[in-house]
Amino acid sequence: MRSRHRISDLPAVREAHPSMQETDGTPARRFGLPTAICLVMGNIIGGGIFLLPASVAPFGTVSLLAFGVLTIGAIALALVFGRLAERHPHTGGPYVYARAAFGDFAGFLSAWSYWTMTWVSNAALAVAGVGYFHVLTGGSSSKTTDLVIALLMLWLPALANLAGTRWVGAVQVISTVLKFIPLLFVAVAGLFFFDPKNLGSFTEGGGSWASGLSASAAILLYSYIGVESAAMSAGEVRDPERNVGRASVLGTIGAAVVYLLGTVAVFGTVAHDKLAKSTAPFSDAVDAMFGGQWGGTLIAFAAVVSIVGALNGWTLMSAQMPYAAAKDGLFPAMFGKKRRGVPTAGVLAAAVLASLLTIVNYVSGSGGVFEILVLITTFSATVPYLLATAAQVYFLLKGEREKVHAGRFTRDMVFALGGFGFSFWLVAGAGYAAVYQGGLFLLAGILVYAFMAARRTATEEREGEPVAAAEKSAEPEAEPELVA
Predict the structure, then answer these.
(1) Nearest to 377 by CA among 115, 59, 99, 149
(2) Which of 49, 194, 258, 436 would bridge 268 by S-S if both were Cys, CB 3.0 to 4.6 A apart?
(3) Are residues 260 and 245 in contact, defined by beta-carbon separation less than 8 angstroms?
(4) Would you give the end-to-end CA distance of the chain in angstroms?
(5) Cβ–Cβ under 8 Å, residues 69 and 239
(6) What are the Basic and acidic residues biased-composition ranges (predicted)?
(7) Does 470 score more than 70 pLDDT?
(8) pLDDT > 50? residue 7
(9) Which of 203-217, 298-312, 392-406 has the highest mean pLDDT?
(10) Which positions ≥6 away from 31 have C-beta within 8 Å?
């Protein structure tokens, strides 16, 4: 059996050593701090922001306070990931840290949860895209039509991924440019049309401000998923010990500025009652500012392109995590094979599972499909965060890497404990239904781990038998003992 602290077994370390690299592609270029910051911001600002102002409007303006609290928590997580990257500057992020600290099972749970989060996120993004597609077509459509549109949004990016990394990169460049245009436009222009009367009450629905804060924060966490992006790609970042932490913090702050200004602008330009029922809040904000439909249609088009681009990037990430785990024998071997630089089995599995989840939610006839999917994603995302922050606490207490100044130790411990408590609070705020549904996804992975662990143990025993036999045959025979 392999030791749980045997970091050389990790795929990240194999990438760091030419003798352990794969030969199916050219060496990856390492990127610097500016590119790493863009990576974090691009992954954080996906398509969810285009619908989230309407999702949190029913809670009142307390959701703006939740956005501020969430930003502080996200920055704390970014600092933790930066410190962990100093200890383990390898590709894999939360998976690497959990496995290094607590062994294969913890690493598997982190990988399984992160993988679940990616394809559940894709389903949520597809649902968000349907609302903006309605703006482009000038009205609503049947559930069947909505389902077909959502499935197309899932499978077109999957096909781009299957075509190879060149197509993935082209789609990402185009969509990233269009992603920031509507957000920055609404954030800046909306400040000149801001009307405090549109804000509504601080709390809605008769609940307490604390319950509204917690519930809206659970939905808003979806906006900050991706804070770990630089840590996930630490092996490709130049000087990761320094740049991963900087990129994580600066990228998170940059995304937070765009988020907060954009959300405040939407809250101040769209009447609260209308915003709570809106399926395209940024489009409604532009229409409220300039009148007519042209502005909203333009925003809706940019939002659809942005969502497709986000689906393109997250589809690739949903394949990379099981690929890394498969190389360690913690996921089925089929996930560890690439074609045109892309793990095809992971892409197909994520697309199929996201499609099934989308179908179930549409066919069930329940309302608030996007909110339900976001809450499931919230739970799945917090498991790797909890394990990563716990790993940081473990490393600090054990002190296996280095002895640090007492002040720095205290600061790092505060951030680690704060990040753990913050993630745990978000699980509690997600609600019973989200924890139940997300827990089912997590528990289903234990059976997969049981099969993979048993299979790997059997393989190691078979491979060890010839070695043991050879070592035994090489041993000199003991001389017979002379008896007087």
Answers:
(1) 115
(2) 194
(3) no
(4) 45
(5) no
(6) 1-17
(7) no
(8) no
(9) 298-312
(10) 39, 236, 237, 238
- Count other Cβ atoms within 10 Å, centred on residue 317: 22
CA distances from 477 to 312, 472, 482 (A): 63, 10, 15
Note the pLDDT of residue 374. Answer: 66
Residue 2 CB partners (closer than 8 Å, separation 6+): 9, 104, 460
In 3D space, the residue among 408, 456, 401 whose CA is nearest the CA of residue 101 turns out to be 401
The confidence band for 403, taking pLDDT boundaries of 50, 70 and 90, is low
Tokens of 477: 């025979």
Q: Do 171 and 271 form a contact (C-beta atoms < 8 A)?
A: no
| Amino acid, single-letter form, for residue 86 | E
Mean of pLDDT values over 196-202: 83
Q: Is 342 strand, coil or helix?
A: strand
Assign 339 to helix, strand or coil: strand
User: Mean pLDDT of all residues in the chain?
Assistant: 78
Write down the residue that tokens 């320094």 correspond to. Answer: 242
Q: What burial letters (b/e) apply to 42-60, b meaning 16+ CB within 10 Å?
A: bbbbbbbbbbbbbbbbbbb
Is 187 within 8 Å of 258 (Cβ atoms)?
Answer: yes
Contact at 8 Å (CB) between 389 and 80?
Answer: yes
CA distance 370 to 237: 34
pLDDT score recorded for residue 18:
36
Phi, psi torsion values for 455, nearest 5 degrees: -65, -40
Among candidate residues 181, 204, 179, 215, the one with its CA nearest the CA of residue 44: 179
The class of domain 29-399+406-460 in CATH terms is mainly alpha
Query: What length is written for the chain?
Result: 484
Confidence (pTM): 0.78
Write out the H or E segment, with its range, that includes residue 115.
helix 104-137
The mean pLDDT of 208-229, rounded to a whole number, is 79
